[in-house]
UniProtKB/TrEMBL annotation:
It holds the Pfam family TetR_N. The keyword Transcription regulation applies. It comes from Pontibacter akesuensis. Residues 5-65 form the HTH tetR-type domain. GO terms for molecular function: DNA-binding transcription factor activity; transcription cis-regulatory region binding. Residues 28-47 bind DNA. Keywords: DNA-binding, Transcription, Transcription regulation. Signal peptide: none annotated. This is Transcriptional regulator, TetR family.
């Protein structure tokens, strides 16, 4: 039997698509079951609640990003500039999948899911970005006088800007109108600004 025929995997994939597109609150388990061609009773045999399903979706999405970033980081055949390009292109692409309304929604209505998202963000900023900077400094691609801790904090702030709806609500509408409309494009721009300041 192929993995795509596994009911649990099918449920997670469809739920991810619906959550990221419509937000958490607007997705009904009955509608999800209908899309999957199963009864709601069958759906609840795999996941006891919508929030449990959300937590699995967020955890798997985060782990998927982590695995790919780790693979690129550990690949000694990839030159550092190409490694930077691949990592941030991939992360930006994964952020493109997420509707900003989804982030705002889970912050208000699914606290456990919000905490998981925050943890994945912290892992990305403080562990993997730090490792990337270390390699760049050792190989001479990053300026020797660049403050590593400051660069990591700037990167963490970039992720916070994208993934925290409270921040964007404080930004004047005129300024927000000049920004790209999706998280992935905002992320690309912020990373570009950070790296232009620290590359040798």
């Amino acid at each position: 039997m192929e993995a795509t025929e596994n009911p649990r995997i099918r449920i997670i994939a469809e739920a991810k698509s619906m959550f990221f597109t419509y937000g958490y609150s607007k997705v009904l388990m009955a509608e999800l079951a209908k899309r999957l061609g199963m009864s709601k009773k069958t759906l609840y045999q795999y996941f006891t609640s919508k929030e449990e399903l959300l937590n699995v979706v967020i955890r798997q999405h985060g782990h998927e990003i982590q695995r790919e970033v780790e693979r690129i980081l550990k690949d000694t055949a990839i030159a550092f500039p190409e490694k930077v390009k691949q990592i941030f292109s991939y992360v930006g692409m994964k952020l493109h999948d997420i509707n900003p309304e989804f982030v705002r929604d889970i912050k208000l209505n699914a606290p456990s899911g919000w905490q998981q998202l925050q943890q994945h963000k912290a892992d990305a900023a403080f562990l993997r970005f730090s490792a990337l900077l270390d390699e760049g400094m050792i190989k001479g691609y990053i300026r020797a006088d660049a403050n590593r801790a400051m660069a990591v904090l700037l990167y963490a702030s970039a992720l916070e800007t994208i993934l925290n709806p409270d921040f964007t609500q404080q930004v004047p509408r005129e300024l927000m109108s000049e920004l790209p409309g999706d998280p992935g494009s905002v992320f690309d721009g912020l990373v570009n600004i950070i790296f232009k300041g620290i590359l040798a």
